[in-house]
Amino acid sequence: MTARSAAELASALQPHGLVARGFFAFAAEADRPFGRSGKPAGSAALVGHAGAAYWPKFRDWLAAQPAYCENPLDTWSRKVISAVAERFSAHAVFPSDKPWLPFQQWAVRAEGLRPSPIGILIHPQYGLWHAYRGALLFEEEIELPEPPRPEHPCDTCVAKPCLNACPVGAFSIEDYDSKACIAHVTGADGAPCREAGCIARNACPIGGDYRYPEEVQAFHMSAFLANNPVN
Questions:
Q1: DSSP per position, 34-99
Q2: N or C, where is the chain less crowded by C-beta within 10 Å?
């Protein structure tokens, strides 16, 4: 991936509110996914968003759909990113693909990020308000500079409000109590979480300029609950 092709990729993603989140090369001895022709991939570009720039594009697409669409954001992401992959002779893969691909590990390689105390990878600029929607796999084995190793914001955050904000204490350094979280969010007192997003996530002081609007947070919370029904 040359500087020119990286800029061209950025231009292709920008109209959809998406960005190239980082690049990395697979080690020759690694267990590599397959590229476009079926050969092992040599390198990858992660695709996602920082903040909610994608939201108006996705919302307009969703409003134009003639019928109910299951997992609409995944469907939209697959449609958009696959078209970009075709343009760049790459193979598009997605976090929802099975068997699961190690997107979290790829993100660590591409951007040098580390998890926050509540599990989400935290970015020094975007905070917790970012996501990876797919990746483009290239068969070329290219040399890339080492990814950035930014300072981990949580190392200097003494108060760690994300761990103390949850009404039912679902988060701790050691664990995430998903049952307590889901029971609260779906219960009588869970309206603030359902309508304005996870209180613990919103408590993080990093990346406030990229915070998702309440409409976006409510959409993601609804999707979370749909994929994690109450037992």
A1: B-TTSSBP-EEEEEEEETTTTHHHHHHHHHT-SS--SSHHHHHHHHHHHHHHHHTT-EEE-TT-SS
A2: C
